[in-house]
Design brief:
Elements: H1 2-5, H2 15-50, H3 57-99
């Protein structure tokens, strides 16, 4: 049982920003894609109702980009708080585990 008795390594602090930025980027990408999809659908419906050809470039500038930026800000703050909390909790639990041996 040498593998089971081995102490686990302490969490690495430099991986916290990497996980935060990766999660923020992925959520921002999904938010941009979904808001662009719904914006295009909304603009097409609006164009059909008004009987005009919709200008879909407005969807990028006025719908998708602001939604993705706002979502990124919220996710960056939330994920940073969660990852720092997780890092501290795992670090404390590892030290308690080491002290109990």
């Amino acid at each position: 049982m040498p593998a089971a008795s081995k102490a686990r390594k302490l969490p690495r602090w430099y991986l916290v920003p990497v996980r935060v930025l990766l999660a923020t980027f992925l959520v921002a990408l999904v938010a941009f894609a979904l808001s662009l999809l719904f914006g295009i659908v909304g603009m097409v419906i609006h164009g059909r109702l008004e009987g005009i050809h919709p200008n879909l470039t407005l969807t990028y500038r006025h719908i998708a980009l602001p939604v993705a930026a706002a979502t990124s800000g919220v996710v960056l703050i939330a994920v940073t708080i969660l990852e720092v909390r997780r890092y501290r909790q795992v670090k404390a639990l590892r030290r308690i585990e080491e002290a109990s041996r």
